[in-house]
Amino acid sequence: MQYKELRGDFQVVVPVPAIAAAAATELFGQVAGFPMLVTAVKFLPSAAITFNGTNFVTLSVRNRGQAGAGTAVAATRAWSAVSSVALTPETLTLSATATDLQFATGDLLTCGFVHSGTGLAVPAGSAVQVTFRGR
Fold it and tell me: Which residue, 125, 120, 112, 42, is CA-closest to 83?
């Protein structure tokens, strides 16, 4: 049996440690074991995050490729206009570019937090859930 023969969705959960305001952080998600297509991404906040139009944080789920230098963004969420409610999963916006959602065998999936202005803190115990299927 080959991975591409498996049916249904698979999920990877990336635990998020406490991230201080203005501290850019990139977290390892997984190395794709087979060609995969991202179908959904959710952020699961452990505590409320109050948006700020000037000083905010942006979460980006990226395909860093096999060499770790890729720039494709599969999904993103910024806390510049909408707050997060504690323990309430949020669906991130997926890229409208189909190739940004495709991972080849060996590609590295990461979750990055980048701050604008002085940024916002991200609470420890949060998580990013990436759903994908074989392609």
Answer: 120
Task: Report d(CA 45, CA 64) in Å as an integer.
Answer: 24
> Using CA atoms, how far apart are residues 90 and 122, in angstroms rounded to an integer?
14
Q: Which CATH number does the domain housing residue 107 bear?
A: 2.60.120
Structural domain range at position 83: 3-134
Predicted structure pTM score? 0.93
Q: What is the pLDDT of residues 26-42, one digit of tens each?
A: 999 999 999 999 999 99
